[in-house]
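Most newcomers find our protein records easier to grasp once they have seen one. Read left to right, the backbone structure tokens trace the chain's path through space. Once this layout is familiar, the rest of the handout is easier to follow. The record below serves as our worked example for the rest of this section:


***
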Amino acid sequence: MLREFRCIQDCSDCCIYRQYYPSVDYGKIGVLLLPEEKKEIENLAQAHKINLTIFPRLGIGVNKGSNGPSHVIAYQLMGTNINGDYCPFLDIKGSNRSPHGGFSCMIYNRRPLSCRAYPAIKENKMEVELDNNCRFSCRHSNQVGKSLLDNELSALTRISNNFERFAEQVIWRYATHIGDQPFMKLLLPRGWYLQDK
């Protein structure tokens, strides 16, 4: 049975924990920002007196012999902790809580598209696949009916449309060199790496 997505009581995991992607070798990823979102996020941080770390995330370029892409097509907002966790806009010190009891977002109405899309990560004709790291997905199912995620799918479609035009390009991925202590001993790389197709 398909269920409507609802945040689990007191959960803020998607705003706290960052994942290693595509593997531990690349370090943890930050919140995806499209180029047009980067400046707005920087302005919001300045208004809230928040320091940010924003790295590139994906780039394109046709020259495989170069040291990096010719054009950045996505950025990533890193967390405030040394291990990359905790979104800088998550209000962990405030007394206000979100409607489901988790920590509130200081920029909820202006949050990035990737936050609006979460936990939807893929859609097909009838269903939407949810991120397996979401506690709702773990508790119920990672498949939800499309009609139950209109707002999330609208944001996911805007992100997908942004990247479809680069499908034939050489894709570069930025390694953050950020992670949990056991992995930091591996001397994770930082910088651009060609993505295997």
Notes: The CA atoms of residues 26 and 175 lie 4 Å apart.
